[in-house]
What we know:
Helices cover 37% and strands 24% of the residues. By secondary structure, the chain is of the alpha+beta class. Strand 2 and strand 3 form a beta hairpin. The longest helix is centred in the last third of the chain and has 20 residues, at 122-141.
Amino acid sequence: MGYRSDVRIIVSKNGYKELEKFVDKFLKEKNEDYNLLKETDIFKQSKYTTYLGWNSVKWYEYSYNDVDSIMQGLHYLKEKGMSYRYARIGENYDDYDEHYYESENEDEQDLEYPSMLREFEDEYVMSELDKQVEQTSDEVEI
């Protein structure tokens, strides 16, 4: 099954057009038919911004051309002076990766950052503690 991640990217609408062009060219040069950019789980555009992402995806840089095309495309946006926000949450609790570039170009500023929530799962822990109490009670009765 492999290790999975959730990935979110926020770019300007113009940045997204440039990213699309870069990814298409990159994949064509690699003779790759699959374009992950066209297979998003999350996609929303406003007048100025594009928000996209994937859930439970194998996001291995330097192993998959589709992932490499997007990551190198983000570096390309930076070279062109276009802002982006990138965040990846891996399966492991401490596996979090974030990259961003803030352009000096006024039309490319003030992008939102990907927002994530981490919450305590108190009910699960309490349930496990209840099981321990029950096991202890069973041991005492014997």
